[in-house]
Amino acid sequence: PELNGDGAEILMKSYACQRRTPLKHHNAFLTEALEILAQNAEFNDNEGRSVAFRRAASVLKALPHRVKSMEDLRCLPCLGDHSQRVIKEILEDGSSREVESTRQSEQFQAMKALTGVFGVGVRTADRWIREGLRTPDDLIRTGQQLNRAQQAGVQYYSELQRAVTRAEAELIMAIVEAAVNSVLPGCQIQLMGGFRRGKEVGHDVDFLITHPEEGKEEGLMLKIISWLEEQGVLLYQKTTRNSYVERLDGPARSASNMDRFERCFSIFKLHSSASRSGSASTSESGSACDSGCRAVRVDLVVSPFSQFAFATLGWTGSKLFERELRRWAGQEKQMTLSSHTLYDSKQNLYLRAQTEEEIFAHLGLEFIPPSERNA
Ligand code: CTP
Ligand code: MN
Ligand code: MN
Ligand code: MN
C-alpha cells in the first residue's frame, strides 16, 4: 500500500464519493494536464475516455502529498495505462508531449473558444469548425444563425469569460433574496455549486430556493423572474417548468441525469461600480450592458420542500462527485439517485430524507461536507 511522508498507510477508495477532496491540493501540475485530455475527449464526443481522465485526476486531488515518483502511485485506483504514461512523462520531463500538442492544437483551441459561448454545445461548435469558423467573432462576422441563448452568449462573451468573484456572488444573493422575499415570504435560499464548495471564483452563481410549506413553491419561479425583469436585472433568461412526476414503480429507466425542477438559466446585469463597492444597485432598468455594467451567469432552481435535501446534494457538485454518487448508488446499492429522490430497487421504495447527511447514510457512505466534494 501507498505510504505518505510519515510512513502512514493511505487507503484510497475507488469512488470519488467515498473520498474527501479539498479545493486546494498538492498535484495541480498533474491534474491540469489530465483535465486537458479529459476536455479534449469531451470535444471528441468520447465520454468514456473523458471520465477516465477525470477520475484519474480526481484521485491525485485527494492525495495528501505531492507525487514525486511513479512509486507514489502504487495501489492507487482509477489510474489507467494512458494516465500513468502522461504522469510518468511529466515527472521525468516536466511536461507531456501529448498534453502540450493538444493544448496548442487549432482544433482544441477553437472548440474551447466556441463551446465557451453560452448556449453552444460540442456538436454545434464542431459543425462550425468544419465550416471554417474558429472564434465567437467569426460567428458575428459570417452572420451565423444563432438561437436566443447563443445571441446572448455572443453579445456578453467577454463579460461571461471573466471569473465571478465571491463578492459578486454575495451581491447577487442579496438581489435574489430581495426578489424572493417580495414575491413569497418565508422561503429558504441557498447558494449552490462551486461557491457552496468553498471556491473563491466561479463561472456562474447557482441558487436553490424552496418553501417549508410544500406546494407554496409552485409557480414561484415565474414570479421571481417577473420581479427581476421589472427591476431591469435580467439581460437574458430562459425558464423551464417543473416536469417531475414520482412514479410508484420507481424512476423511469430512460431518466437522464438532467433534473426536472422549475429552473432558470439567466444572465444578470450588475453595475460595475456596485460590484466593486459591494452594494447592490438594481434601480436602472433596460437590458443593455454598457461599459459600466457587468454581466454574470446565474442559475436559479426551485424545489418542493420534500425534495430539498436531494436538490441540495445534486446542485452542490462537483460534477464528477455527482456522477460518482449516482454510479455508487446504482452499482453498489441497486439504488437510483437523482436531484429529486432516492429509489431502492431491492425494497421497491423511495427513501425519504430531510438532510444531506440522511442521504449519505441511506447510501451507506460516510458524510462528505461540501468543501470536500471538489472531486
Ligand atoms: N447541474 C445540474 N444540471 C445542469 C447543470 C448543473 O444538475 N444542467 C448541477 C451540477 O451537477 C453541479 C451544479 O449544478 O452539481 C453546479 O453546476 P455548475 O454551475 O455547472 O458548476 P460549478 O460546480 O458550480 O462550477 P462553476 O464554478 O464553474 O460554476
Ligand atoms: Mn493537504
Ligand atoms: Mn456554478
Ligand atoms: Mn450553474
Q: Your description of this structure?
A:
- This protein has about 375 residues and is α+β, with helices and mostly antiparallel strands.
- The chain has 4 domains: about 1-100, DNA polymerase beta, N-terminal domain-like (DNA polymerase, domain 1, Orthogonal Bundle); about 105-155, DNA polymerase, domain 1; about 165-310, Beta Polymerase, domain 2 (2-Layer Sandwich), CATH 3.30.460; about 315-370, DNA polymerase, thumb domain (Beta Polymerase, domain 3), CATH 3.30.210.10.
- The protein has helices at about 30-45, 45-60, 80-95, 95-105, 105-115, 120-130, 135-140, 150-155, 155-160, 165-185, 195, 220-230, 270-275, 310-315, 320-335, 355-360; strands spanning about 165, 190, 200, 205-210, 235-240, 260-270, 295-300, 335, 340-345, 350.
- Strands 2-4-7-6-5 form a 5-stranded mixed beta sheet, sandwiched between helices.
- Helix 10 (about 165-185) crosses helix 12.
- It starts with about 25 loop residues before the first helix and ends in a 13-residue tail after the last helix.
- The model is unreliable at about 280-285 (pLDDT under 50).
- It binds cytidine-5'-triphosphate and manganese (II) ion (3 copies).
Write the layout of secondary structure elements.
Elements: H1 28-43, H2 47-61, H3 81-93, H4 97-104, H5 106-115, H6 122-130, H7 136-141, H8 148-155, H9 157-161, E1 164-165, H10 166-183, E2 188-191, H11 193-196, E3 201-202, E4 205-210, H12 220-230, E5 234-240, E6 262-271, H13 272-277, E7 293-302, H14 308-314, H15 319-333, E8 335-337, E9 342-344, E10 349-350, H16 356-362
Parallel strand pairs: 4-7
Antiparallel strand pairs: 1-3, 2-4, 5-6, 6-7, 8-9, 9-10
Helix pairs in contact: 1-2, 1-3, 1-4, 5-6, 10-12
The structure holds cytidine-5'-triphosphate and manganese (II) ion (3 copies).
